[in-house]
Amino acid sequence: MQFFNGYHHGAVGSLTNAVYMIFEPVPAIVGTVVLTGIVLALTRNLRVASTFAATIAATWLSLAVVKLIVHRLRPDSALLPFPFSPAQVDASYPSGHAAFVTALVVTIVLGLAARGSRWVAGIIGALLILGVGTALVVDGVHFPSDVIASIVWGIVVAPLARTIWVPVVLGGLVGARLRRGRDARQLR
Fold first, then answer.
1. What is the DSSP annotation of 84-147?
2. Are 179 and 48 in contact (CB under 8 A)?
3. Is 140 left (phi over 0), alpha (psi -120 to 50) or beta?
4. Lower CB count within 10 Å: N or C terminus of the chain?
5. pTM of this structure
């Protein structure tokens, strides 16, 4: 931890702090709502937009339950050369920031990227996930294992949440109202 946190000064420290703040819960929620609105405007398909939002929310919120159960302490700021300010007092494991970014990327790659460009979206997304994960460790707010576990969680749970949302929720009464014409073809 001390090695990574040793880079948390100057421009690198400012950048990693900005990354942390951008993916805090309130900006992440607002960003998800805005992106869901953009998805709805572009696709004109409530089914696609609701799947986008529900997949991210289910992945991220289910991780919060794990965080409450495990309740691992954050890295000891007294041992870090550049402690993060303000000190984070919630649990460290797993990382909600890393899980959110992973859920966002997986959801975009699986549900929105055109089949031919999924690999491009996946590479760009992987770089974003790696960048956010690195920023969290450099900030000294998470152990590398917190970040890795959250990335794995997002990769596993987001497709599962999407798979459950589409037939179970959208296949029921809600789905009956939404399924008209191109809706059934657009999501597949």
1. -SSPP-S--BS-HHHHHHHHHHHHIIIIIS-GGGHHHHHHHHHHHHHHHHHHHHHHTSS-HHHH
2. no
3. left
4. C
5. 0.81
For residue 93, list its beta bridge partners. 72
Distance CA 59, CA 160 (A): 9
For 45-104, write each residue's pLDDT tens digit.
Answer: 888 898 999 999 999 889 888 988 888 888 878 777 777 777 777 777 888 899 999 999
In 3-state terms the chain splits into helix, strand, coil percentages (rounded to 5) of 75, 0, 25
Q: Where are the domains of the chain?
A: 2-186
Task: Find the mean pLDDT for residues 158-179.
Answer: 69
104 torsion bin: left (phi>0), alpha (psi -120 to 50), beta (else): alpha
- CA pair distance 44, 29, nearest whole angstrom: 21
The pair of structure tokens assigned to 123 is: 């590479």
What is the chain's alpha carbon radius of gyration, rounded to the nearest angstrom?
18
Tell me which residue has tokens 């749970």: 157
- CA dist 165 to 24, 49, 60, 152, 169, Å? 25, 12, 15, 20, 5
How far out from the chain centre does Cα 147 lie?
A: 11
Residue in the block written with tokens 């997949």? 55
State the residue for tokens 């975009």: 108
